[in-house]
Amino acid sequence: MSEAVSALNNAYAKGAITVQEVGPQGMITLRGDLSDAAFGAAVAQVTGASVPGQRKITHAGANAVAWMSPDELLILLPYAEVGAAVSSLNAALAGTHFLAVNVSDARALFRVTGKPGPVREVIAKLAPADLSPDAFALGDIRRTRLAQVAAAFWLTQEGEANLVCFRSVARYAFDLLATSAAAGPVGFFRQG
Amino acid sequence: MLTLQCPYCGVMAEETELHAGGEAHLKRFGPGSSDEDFETYMFMRENPKGVHFERWRHVNGCGKWFHAARCTATLEVFGTYSAQVSEPPQQIKDAITAKRPGWSWRNFA
Q1: Is residue A187 part of a domain?
Q2: Which one of A155, A174, B90, B109 is separated from A45 by 20 to 30 angstroms, measured CA to CA?
C-alpha cells in the first residue's frame, strides 16, 4: 500500500500561537441509532470510549468519539487502526440500520496551541460560535463554519484546540487559522 | 441578524450557519394531480407581514432540516421545531398566540 500523506504534509505556522496540520489521522463516520445499547457497545469495543451526549466528545487514550448530529458520530483513532475498526463495526452492527465509513483521507486535522484565551480567539475570529469558557468548555465539540467552509472543533485541553475540515479545503483552513493566529490576541477572553 | 436554535443539536445558530429552505408545511401535488393543485403547490407562496413558517437547514452544523416560526416584520422568533411534522406543534401555536393574538397563516391559527 502507498504511504499515507496528510493534506498539507504537516504544515506548521510558528508564533505565540502555533497552528499545525497534524495527521494523517484516522477517522470513521458512524451513523446509526445512538441510543441503541448494541450501538454503544460496538463504539466502546472499537474505541474504549462511550457514546457522547449532544455536542460532546469523549476520549479514551488516543481515541475519541465526537457527536456530529443526532444520528452520527465521528470516531477518531490512529490512522493504521481504521481498517480493522471499520471491519469490527461492520461485524458488531450487522443486521441493524447503520453506516460505518473510513473518511480518514477525506479530512484534515489541525491543532492550534498557545495560551488558553488567545487560542479561543483564533477560532472565535473565524466562526459564528460562542467560544467563551462558559459556553464552550473541555469535552464540547462545535460544528460550524470557519469563514466560508464547514469545520468542527474541540478543546483537548485549555490552550489546545483541534479542528477538522474537509481535506479539499485544508489549505484555505490552514491559512485562515495561521492568519488569525498571526494577527495576535484581542484580549476578549481574559483567561491566561 | 436572525438567530435560530436548531432543535436537533441545540446550537443557537446565526443566519450564516443556516440555509433557508422556503415556506413550511407545503403539501405536495405530483403526477396525476389537477393543474390547479399542481400550480398552487408549485408557485403559490405566502408572503406575510407578520407570522410566518419556514424550513431551515443547519447546513454548517448538524446538517438537519427543521421548522421555524417567526415574524417577518420584527425578526422575532416564536420557536423552532422538528421537520417531521405536517403542522406546527401546539406549544409553538401557543407561543405565537401569546405574542400575536388572532394570528392566522394558511389553515393554521
Answers
A1: no
A2: A155
* ipTM entry: 0.89
In a domain, B82, yes or no: yes
User: Which of the four pLDDT bands, split at 50, 70 and 90, describes residue A189?
Assistant: confident
User: Nearest-CA distance from A181 to chain B in Å?
Assistant: 23
- For chain A, the residue count is 192
Question: Before A24, cis peptide (omega within 30)?
Answer: yes
Q: Which B-chain residues 17-56 have CB contacts (< 8 A) with chain A?
A: 17
Number of domains in chain A: 2
**Cα–Cα distances in angstroms (integers) from residue A35 to residues A30, A31, A50, A169, B105, in the given order:** 13, 12, 11, 33, 37
Residue A55 is part of which domain span? 25-104
Which pLDDT tens digit goes with each residue over A38-88? 999 999 999 999 999 999 999 999 999 999 999 999 999 999 999 999 999
Q: Which residue of A has its CA nearest to B58?
A: A144
